[in-house]
Amino acid sequence: MKIAAFLALGLAVLALVLWQAFGRAQQVAPIQAGALQAHLEHYARAGHHRSGGDGDAATRDWLSGELRDAGFDVEVQSIPFEQWNHEEAYLETAGGRLEGFPLWWPPRDPGLRSVSGRVRLVADAGPGDIGVISIDPYLLASLKDEHRKVIADASERGLVGIIILTKTISGEHFAFNAEAGLADIAVLILGSEHAGAVDKVIADETAAQLRLHGDYQTSATWNVIGRLNRAGSETVVVSTPRTGWFNCGAERGPGVALFVELARWAASEGDADLVFVATGGHEIAHIGMDAFMKAGAPDPQTTANWVHLGASIAAHEWADPDERRLGASSAQNSATRWIIFSENQTFEMFRHFHSLGYQFSPANVSVFGEAKDVHAAGYSRFFAFAGGHPYFHLPSDEADNTSGEMLAPVALAIQKIMLKSL
What we know:
alpha/beta; 14-stranded mixed sheet; disordered N terminus
């Protein structure tokens, strides 16, 4: 009888431990696809989300209100900087104007932003010419070191401008994240829709005019920080970038939509303190995350978990523009989206996300994006999303590139993991 009682007690303890480890995580009220869809559409409607612009300000105000409504104390952290106020960027040729986008940051000297010269492939170009390089931006957000070297070498050889011809699904120009310390030379980004026209200008050996119109202005971007202090011994952090080059429907939209719904849900769960931060300045060297880390981030030693809702969490993997127009594909961007995580969460990551189609990157193997900032600051328990999709960093990245339906299972997986820290 004693042995039977001991075994029964042991089984009861084991059942309790297993329930605490696994069962409690299942007691979650799932975030609804319809709510996520509404947030995706709201975010995209604000227009371009470039740091310091109207879309940045509109999203700041919207998320501040959402956090207050969820019961958070809200601080808006201002980050002043000098922004390039983009008006237009183009190459004027004998055959017409080719519209594009500048590489941030354009030269300070206005004379260097309006140049003329013969257009040639960069390897063949010399003093006074405009050089052309082609880049496939697949899996890129910024230029590679090899691209920076080509631009620097071209400037040293006396070229007056550079055209980056980007190959994209829609033919639109790709926008690379801002480059600090680049050579003082005008760089125009064109989409592959203009490849034929550029080839003709090169073949004709005629002069063209490269123009980057705009000016530098004092500006600011903002971090929206919500805090809910519940006298907990530990803190859970949720972060997402708010800003990007264009409307960022599937790039930033999923992170923002999840941010709002997770704030509403977490506010009524557990007793851990909560910090929710939506950062500005993502596309210009993460200046918002940098500011938050310097003033506002909680102590790494008392942070139970940090969830970073980065780029392209769930998006359609359209094969071509026609498929997008018809809405015909059910495929997602599984090959180009990652979860980066601290090694102490390996089991949880594979358990909850393996079936959803993510690439896995343990932080001791590779850490990138703003997860790198979190890791470098000494937070020992975190996971972060990062990735791309077919319309990533393109002007036509709208809300139809993602959906609340595909995002809802991701939300549930995050809830189950977060609940253990709340």
